[in-house]
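To whoever is covering the structure queue this week,

Two jobs came back overnight. Logging them here so there's a record in the thread.

Job A:
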Amino acid sequence: MTAVDLGADLGIEAAAELKARLSAHLASECGVVLAAENVERVHTASLQLLSAFVRDRRKAGLRTDFEACAPPLREAARLLGLDVHLGLDTVASSETTSIPEQSK
C-alpha cells in the first residue's frame, strides 16, 4: 500500500497541489491509503478531487482506503452527500476503511 498524506489544508488554494499528488497515484496497481488524520480545513473543490480519484480507481478495480479520517473531512463529506461514496460513513478518526467495491 502507498500512503498519501492529505495534510491539514484541503482548501481551494490547495486543490491544484492535491490534484497533482493524487494524479501520481491514480493508476497505481498497489493499494492507496489516503491519510486524513490531519485535515483541518476542507473546501468543495478538494472533495470533488477526492471523489473523482476514488471513482476512477474503483472503476479500474484498484483499492483505495482512508486512514484515520479527521472530523472536518468526514463532516464536509457528509454534508455534501459524499460520505458513503468515499467510504467515510463508517470510518472513525483512528481507523482505516476500505472504500466499497463498485457493483457490476
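Job B:
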Amino acid sequence: MGRMDRYRTIVEQIPEALFVLRENRILFLNPKARQLLGVQENQEIILEEFIEAEEKSARSDGPEDLQTGKLHEACTVRLLGRQGQVHWVRMQGAPITWEGDSALLYCITDMTRERLLEEDLRASEERYRTAIEHANDGVAMVRGDLHIYVNQRFLDIFGYERPEEVIGRPVSMMVHPEDRQKVTEFNLRRQRGEPVPSRYEFKGIRENGAPIYVEVSATRTSYRGEPVSLVYVRDVTERKWMEEALQRSRDFYLTLFEEFPTMIWRLGVDGQCDYLNRAWLDFTGRTLKEEKGEGWLQVIHPEDLEGFRELLEQSLSKQEPFSAELRVRRRDGLWRWILKIGRPFHGLDGEFAGYIGASFDITERKEQEEELRVSATHDPLTALPNRRLLEDRLKVALAQASRKNLRVGVILMDLDNFKQVNDKMGHLAGDELLVELGRRLCALVRGGDTVARLGGDELVVVLPEINHPRDAQKVAKRVLEAIRKPFLISGEELSISSSLGTAIFPDHGGSPEVLLQRADQALYQAKANGGNRALLFNPSSGVGRLARSLAERN
C-alpha cells in the first residue's frame, strides 16, 4: 500500500468528520462528514446550505469567515443536515493545499448530545426553582443566625417584598420579644447538635410590626460544604397541607425536598414512581432503587394492592386528584395504615406530567374507627355479634340459601337457672360464665357460622347452607353436650345446663324475625319439658315469649 493509500484509509476511517472547503464549496467529505450532513458521495455541496438561518444572523462570523480560514480557533455552530436534522458541532479549520490550490481543512466534532444534556439540566433546575418559589410553606436557609436564602412564601408570611430585605439579616428580627429568647436558644442548640423539638410555635413580627404566630420545623444539613439549618415556616392561622411538586434534584433544591419531614413521592404519566423522599425511605427501610418504578407497590398489603392499582389507573386516565387508605409494611415488619393523597402536576409546557403526593400514617385513627365499629356491632362483654349484626348476617344467609336451594338453621338458647348462678356466685362470675360459654360455642361451630348474644344469657347460633333439619339438630346436640361439661369460674368448677330451640329456613319461616320467634317457641317448649334439652320447632307447641316469661317467674 502506497503512502497516499494509507493517508486515504486514515481519512476514510477516522471517527471525526472532515471536509475540505474552497470558496464556499465543499470539495471533499469523509464518510463521517457525509453521514453527519446526510449527503451522498460526489454531490456538489455549498456550505451555506447547511448553516441555519438563525445561526447566520446570530453570529458575527459568517460563512465567509469559514471559507477564508478566519475561524482557525475552535468554535461551536449549528449545522442543518439534508434530512432536516440539527447538529451542534465544534469546528476547527486549518489551511491546506488541495489539488494544487489553497483550501481549508475543517475537523468537526458532533456536540449535539452534550448540548441537549446542558439544556435539560437548565430546564430541570428551573422547574425545581419554580416549585420552591411557589411552595405553600415558607422556606429559609440559615447559617449561624443569618438568613442566606428565603423563598417567596417566606417573604409573604412576614410581609417583606424583596429577598434583599431578609438575606444577611438575623433570625431574631422576625421574632417577637416574648419568644426571642426561646427561639435563640433553640437555634444555638441546633448548631451544637443538641436535641431540639422537631416542631414548635413562636410569636413573630411582620415587617409592619403586626404580630403573627407561626409553626416551625428545622433540621441541620450542609450546603456547599458548610453546616446550615433548613427552616420550614407555616402560618398557623392559614394552615394548609403542602401539595406542591417535590422533584428530585442534584443540587440545593433536592436537599430541601429530601429534608422535608412528610413522606413525599412523585409519579409519572405512566404511573411509575420516579421519586420518593428520605422520610418515605426511612419509613419503609428500603432504598430509592428498590422503590422506583413499581417497587414502592411491593410494601402495600396484598389485600389492598389491587384496589389501589385500579384507583391509580382511573385517576391517571382522568388526570384527577385521588386519595386512598391502605396498609403499608413499615421497616420493622408491622403493617401501618397510610393515607395517600395525590395531586396532578403539570410541566412547564402546561401538559399533565403525573402526580405529586404525600403519605401520612393514620394507624391510630383507623384503630379508633375499628373500635367504634366493633362497639356498634358486638356485645361489649363477650365480643360476640350483637342483635344488629346477627340480623344482618341472618338476612345474608337467607338470601344465599334461597339462591342455592339450601336451608338455614337458627338455634336459640339460654342457660337453665342462670339467675341462681348470679345470686350464689355474684354477677362477675355470671359474666365470666357467659364469656367462657361464648368461647366454647365459637370453637364448636364452623368458620362460616355465627354465634351471637341477644342479651342476658340468651345466645343464638346461625347455621348457613345446611341440607336438612337434622343437620341443625346434630349441632344443637353437640352444644348441649359442650355446655354440660363443667366450667372453671373464679377458681371453682361450675356445672350448668341449657335449653335450646331450633327453627329452620324455609320450613318454619322466611324472615329473621319469624325464625327467631319460632326458635323462641321451641325454646319455651324445651323449658316446659324440664330444660336441659334441645327441641325443633313444632307449630302445635308453645305460645311464645310471654308464656316462657311466666314459666320463668313461676
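Note for Job B: Confidence is low (pLDDT under 50) at residues 57-63, 239-250, 543-554.

Please reply-all if you pick these up so we don't duplicate work.
Q.
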